[in-house]
Amino acid sequence: MTFEPADRVDRVPPSGIRRFFELAEEMDDIISLGVGEPDFSAPWAAREAAITSLERGRTSYTANRGKRELREKIARYERDYHDLKYDPDEEVLVTAGASEGIDLAFRALLDSGDTAAVVQPCYVSYVPDATFAGVDVIDVPTRATDEFKLTREALERAGAAEADALVYCYPNNPTGATMTREELGEVAAFCREHDLLVFADEIYADLTYEHDHASIATLPGMRERTVVFNGFSKAFAMTGFRLGYAMAPPQAVEAMNRVHQYTMLSAPTTAQHAAIEALDNCREEVEAMTEQYDRRRKYVLSRFEEMGLDCFPAAGAFYAFPECPWDDANEFAEALLQEQRVAVVPGTAFGEGASGHLRISYATGLEDLKEAMNRMAAFVE
Amino acid sequence: MSSRREILDLLRENARYTTEDLANLTDATEDEVEAIIDDLEAEGAIRGYQAVVDWNAVDETDGEHVRATVELNVALDRETNYGDIADRIKKFPEVTSLRLVSGDYDFDLEVEGDSMREVSHFISDKIAPIPEITQTVTHYIMDSYKEQGKTFDDHDDDDRLSVSP
Q1: Rounded to an integer, what is the distance from CA A248 to the centroid of its chain?
Q2: HSE on the CB side for A115, CA within 13 Å?
Q3: Chain A residues touching residue B162 (CB < 8 angstroms)
Q4: Global pTM value
Q5: Which of A1, A79, B31, B139 is least enclosed, having the fewest CB within 10 Å?
């Protein structure tokens, strides 16, 4: 017996743009627009709560589902800001980041050989998570001409009617696309008609700029078939705390918790204390950060317009997703890095459907953003 | 937030933003930005544009630079109010800021000079002799970690990955 990857691991190829990542890591004087995490520190009150919890020696495991106080605050926050109503005792599971929640959903709610329809372009973990769980994947490509929104036509074209679950992220990483309540309506109808579960990654729910976030779980007949994922990484800038949560009907949470209790046991305790404080007292910081992102978004979009690069008007998250002026986005990103020392992520990192685009993160200070856009303009010209 | 407030915030962040930058950062057009700035200047809301300088980073050959904050206590009488005293003090070019404050003392004064001796002489020769002034307490600024919202630290503590998909 030798150390060979298990088949299900072997089926997940290493990132095709690994060489690009390695190149970027070797260079230390670059301006990076390639980072998918906030440039702000977590709100001070949340950090203070984490420190206090450590000082008081609160370092033991918590309940598998997460501290009850935290689940209550999550339920209240989701009710107040996203119109979602979940019972903190039976319908909320605190996880180590939204990412753990998504992995749990694949493993706990789908069987090996089941099929998940994954809306593309998407966050890089969904397809590998499905593969690790033995779940087959149908790609559901979205198009720039539809502003990367999910439509009934896209679902039908991809054959998603045959799938057991639909997986998506809106506001979307990497495109910055959002869905309105009306637009989600036709998706919901499709899922009801074809009896699909929905895994709705709403980690960017608080980062919307043109209209309020709408959750598919608020639409008629959808709550009972949807798992909603959220967390503290994006809106609260608490990426390193590794704290998220999943909300779903009791049966789903019970199944996910069964996997969670044998793998993670419970989410990090210190982070849970920080999160309670964040939900209680840090909404103002969330709004201030959102205002900053919006300002940067407008700036980036207008600079792309000046450069003559097509970029649909991203309305959520902190990404712009312009078309790449070269045929090969990998080559473009590498040349931009070498010649102008600006790092952007080639769309190929997010699957074939995204290959003609670049992901630009504006989770970067305005000064750097301005300089990076100047360099990019010089490069494009 | 109104465009006026937005533009003020942005100029406070970086006074070198061009009209074009400001238009790109807000919903206003370049013409609107120009008009707003003209109004703000005319109304006296914008009083000037300055660089934020870390004097420790300035080469010594460019000359020594000394700053002090001075606490001033004053005694008012029927003919003299705070404004009268402020009018006398603010005329000195050595005084870079002057604020009436609440608490243990009345005025908070910031003074700049080319040497400690020069600053000391200014306080003792020009400020202390003003009849209404009853006490001065001078604090020389030894080091500055933050000025006008800008932190002065040289290390780059952004340890995020350069690229993350």
Answers
A1: 18
A2: 12
A3: 21, 24-25, 27, 30, 32, 34-35, 343
A4: 0.90
A5: A1
